[in-house]
Amino acid sequence: MGKAGQALRQTLEKHGISQYRLAEVMGIERNNISRWVREERDPTAEKVEAIAEALRVLDPEACREFVTLYLGEYMA
Q1: Is the pLDDT reported for residue 73 higher than 70?
Q2: d(CA 68, CA 34)
Q3: What's the total number of domains in the chain?
Q4: Do 23 and 32 meet the contact criterion of CB atoms below 8 Å apart?
Q5: What is the span of the domain harbouring residue 22?
Q6: From CA 15, how far away is CA 62, in angstroms rounded?
């Protein structure tokens, strides 16, 4: 487990985005974000897409960073 959670944690910390704010934009409970960040659960593919969309609304650079951290070499 964890690549999405690791990428999300790094992105939120670097860009100063709170789990509460991300959850609000995504329309979900903050505890879901917390489980991903703590790597207790992996988000589904649909949720990874929703995370990226919410980050794009909050901070487009954060979105790019999350996608790059998550997909890494597959971005080429």
Answers
A1: no
A2: 21
A3: 1
A4: yes
A5: 3-75
A6: 6
Q: How far is CA 3 from the centre of its chain?
A: 10
Q: Give pTM, 2 decimals.
A: 0.91
Instruction: Give the pLDDT band of residue 72 (cuts 50, 70, 90).
Output: confident
Which residue shows structure tokens 């703590």? Answer: 38
CATH code, domain with 8: 1.10.260.40
> Do residues 73 and 35 touch, judged by C-beta distance below 8 A?
no
Long-range contacts of 59-62 (CB under 8 A, 24+ apart): 59/15, 59/17, 61/15, 62/11, 62/12, 62/14, 62/15, 62/17
Residue 67: is its pLDDT beyond 70?
yes
